[in-house]
Amino acid sequence: MYSDTAHAGTPTSTAPSAPTWDPQQYLRHAGHRTRPFLDLLARIPELPTSPARIADLGCGPGNVTELLTTRWSEAVITGFDLSPEMLQRATEQYAGPTAGGGSLDFRHGDIAGWLPEEPYDLIVSNAALQWVPSHPGSFGAWINGLRPGGTFAFQIPGNFTAPSHALLAQLCDAPRWRSRLAGHGARYIHLLEPAEYLARFTELGCTADVWETTYHQLLHGPDPVLDWVKGTALRPVLTALGDDREAVDAFLTEYRDLLRAAYPSGPRGTVFPFRRIFAVARKEA
Ligand SMILES: C[S@@+](CC[C@H](N)C(=O)[O-])C[C@H]1O[C@@H](n2cnc3c(N)ncnc32)[C@H](O)[C@@H]1O
């Protein structure tokens, strides 16, 4: 739940089970992963002040954070993330002054306890809140932290009952893996449905725009769904198995075979349907 003890703008401690991220693997599907963010960006209304102050929660490798500068070129933008690997990549690639006179910086911070340390025009989060099941409990604080007329906008995957995730959860709970991986494939069950997000934001007095889209992604190459989840849903499993190469290989082989059956490759590639949930909540001006 939302933490009363968190300090404004400062991180709380990293959970011991926090997965290790691999920016390079994650960015292998950057095209498909970026598209929902562009669809979200297109629905964000004008911001109340210029230069705008923007926070990106769970900024990852920073490529999506940087896209914010294409619309708000003078903005002062801070990306927050827990992963040292992701933050290093973001900082190396994108930190510093922007062409439009604004700036980008990246800080270590835990979304779960994050409080706006100053008034924001926009708080945005792309494909990150699913890692923080308590996120609806923070909505009130985040909306409070917006300037009048400011916006909170996010996108999260809504595909946790899809074969990619259901099979992962089943495999983690199978007798062979249970002792090391039980629960690692079912970390996302606390997400709300679009109607529930809409209700939360209207209850908070916001003008809300909530929708869902299923992208029928056509992936290429051998075992592309496995390659995709290696960048995201498999991170907790890979982190838990650590340096045990034999176990990693055995798990990946079993999971790969299940994915091949669930997502057969065709002459033009492998279709990987992906449902996503979007919300844009504007605070009263
Ligand atoms: C799937 S990536 C999305 C990255 C980026 N927003 C994008 O759209 O490409 C999820 C990110 O959320 C971060 N994350 C997960 N839990 C977090 C938490 N509690 N606090 C801060 N960041 C978190 C991860 O480190 C990771 O970089």
Automatic annotation (TrEMBL):
<feature type="compositionally biased region" description="Low complexity">
    <location>
        <begin position="1"/>
        <end position="20"/>
    </location>
</feature>
<dbReference type="InterPro" id="IPR029063">
    <property type="entry name" value="SAM-dependent_MTases_sf"/>
</dbReference>
<comment type="similarity">
    <text>Belongs to the methyltransferase superfamily. Tam family.</text>
</comment>
<protein>
    <recommendedName>
        <fullName>Trans-aconitate 2-methyltransferase</fullName>
        <ecNumber>2.1.1.144</ecNumber>
    </recommendedName>
</protein>
<keyword id="KW-0808">Transferase</keyword>
<dbReference type="InterPro" id="IPR023149">
    <property type="entry name" value="Trans_acon_MeTrfase_C"/>
</dbReference>
<feature type="region of interest" description="Disordered">
    <location>
        <begin position="1"/>
        <end position="23"/>
    </location>
</feature>
<keyword id="KW-0949">S-adenosyl-L-methionine</keyword>
<keyword id="KW-0963">Cytoplasm</keyword>
<dbReference type="GO" id="GO:0030798">
    <property type="term" value="F:trans-aconitate 2-methyltransferase activity"/>
</dbReference>
<comment type="function">
    <text>Catalyzes the S-adenosylmethionine monomethyl esterification of trans-aconitate.</text>
</comment>
<dbReference type="GO" id="GO:0032259">
    <property type="term" value="P:methylation"/>
</dbReference>
<dbReference type="InterPro" id="IPR041698">
    <property type="entry name" value="Methyltransf_25"/>
</dbReference>
<feature type="domain" description="Methyltransferase">
    <location>
        <begin position="54"/>
        <end position="150"/>
    </location>
</feature>
<dbReference type="InterPro" id="IPR023506">
    <property type="entry name" value="Trans-aconitate_MeTrfase"/>
</dbReference>
<keyword id="KW-0489">Methyltransferase</keyword>
<dbReference type="Pfam" id="PF13649">
    <property type="entry name" value="Methyltransf_25"/>
</dbReference>
